[in-house]
Amino acid sequence: MNEYKNPIKKMWQQANQSIVDGKNVQLPHETGTATPGYTPAAVGLLYIVNPNTAAPAIYISTGTSSPSDWRLIWD
C-alpha cells in the first residue's frame, strides 16, 4: 500500500516505533479504538484512532475544558 494514500497508517507505524536513526520523530500521543471521550490534559495533544478499526482518525486537542475540545483533523 502506498504510504501517502493512507497517512494515518504511516503515522501509527511511526508513532509506535523506537527512534533508532534520529530521523523519525515520535510525537507525544495517545491511542484508542474510538473517538476520545475525555477532557484533554493540555492543548496540542494528538489522539490516534487505531487504523485497524473501521473508522481510523486523528484528533488534536484545542483546549482543556471538556471532551469537545478534541478536534478531528483527519479521517
Q: What report would you give on this structure?
A:
The chain has 1 helix and 4 strands. Strand 3 and strand 4 form a beta hairpin. The protein has 75 residues and is of the alpha+beta class. It has one domain.
Give the gist of this structure.
Helices cover 12% and strands 24% of the residues. It contains one helix and four strands.
Please give the structural blueprint.
Blueprint: H1 7-15, E1 29-32, E2 46-49, E3 57-61, E4 70-74
Parallel strand pairs: 1-2
Antiparallel strand pairs: 2-3, 3-4
* End-to-end C-alpha gap: 17 Å
The tally of helices reads 1
Radius of gyration: 13 Å
> Which structural class matches the secondary elements?
alpha+beta
Q: What's the helical proportion of residues?
A: 10-25%
Largest sheet: 4 strands, mixed
What portion of the residues fall into strands of 2 or more residues?
15-25%
Instruction: Catalogue the unreliable spans.
Output: none
- Give me the count of strands: 4
| Inertia-based shape | globular
Mean pLDDT value = 79
Strand order of the largest sheet: 1-2-3-4
Task: List the helices and strands in order.
Answer: HEEEE
List its traits.
75 residues, alpha+beta, four-stranded mixed beta sheet, 1 helix, 4 strands, globular
